Amino acid sequence: MNEYKITYSGESEGYRIITDRTEAAAKKFFRETAKELDLGRITIDSVELLSDNAMASKRNERETLETIRQLVADLGPQSYLATAFEGCFEDAESNIENDFGDSMKARWLHADAELNAAKGTIEELEEKLQQEIAERQRARDEAQEFIKKLEAKVLSDDDLEDVRQLLDDRATEADEAATKAAGEIVKYADHPESKEFQQAVINHRNYTREAEYARSILERVVAAQAAAHTTKNAVDVAA
Predict the structure, then answer these.
(1) Which among 91, 69, 92, 90 has a CA at the least distance from the CA of 81?
(2) Can you list the positions of beta strands (E) in the chain?
């Protein structure tokens, strides 16, 4: 855009800086402005080009926008340009009035960048998921192999009896330790904030759980002994 300095005289005198495409356009706008400002009868004394690379004013932007809008409208709503410019005129108006820099392309680029980032995240998650599936499958295979090895080992009656006795002894010892811890709780009950009382509570809880766990395993061992005995009798009868 060109920037002109228009000097005038008459009933009013002075100068105004006008930005426009041509000197003729600048003069035309100056005359319209002079009427609006009621400068009276004036004469343009000179027009000086100050710059041929001036920034367009909002008036220039609005006028150009209306010209483009009308040109596109003249082509009809089904024209290729009308389709391409859909939404662009509204962006242009908003940019002019609010000093924004939005555009359909910028929004598309931003959305495309976010989409690419999302795709990258999805691919990363998919890769992690595949790794997790592979790890779980590997763990499952290892567990099945371990179970097979356990199933291949059959405890004898003597082994089962030894295990039963060990578990019974362990449960008894745990009961005794829990009873002792209960006594400690009573002993230090007047000072529940003390380390001795709190440790006694922890010990009682742990030994109680230990006894319960030992007995739960013991029940299974006894059941296994009974099953083994039943199987042995069935085999003897069949023989």
Answers:
(1) 69
(2) 2-10, 14-20, 42-51
Residue appearing with tokens 């019974």: 168
Instruction: Give 129-158 pLDDT, tens digit per residue.
Output: 899 899 889 988 888 887 777 656 666 778
Do the beta carbons of residue 72 and residue 85 sit within 8 Å?
yes
> If residue 190 lies in a helix (H) or strand (E), which one and from where to where?
none
Distance of CA 191 to the CA centre of its chain: 51
Distance of CA 158 to the CA centre of its chain: 61
Calculate the CA dihedral of residues 184, 190, 196, 199 and round it to 10 degrees: 70
pTM higher than 0.70: no
> Helix 58-75 crosses helix 88-98 at what angle (to 10 degrees)?
170
136 token code pair: 């779980």
pLDDT single digits (tens) 45-82: 999 999 999 998 889 888 888 989 899 999 998 999 98
Specify whether the CB–CB gap between 20 and 4 falls below 8 A: yes
Query: What's residue 20's pLDDT?
Result: 94
- Residues 125-136 have pLDDT tens digits of 888 889 989 988
- Phi, psi dihedrals of residue 15, rounded to the nearest 5°: -150, 160
CA distance 178 to 206: 8
Whole-number Å distance between alpha carbons of 88 and 178 = 81
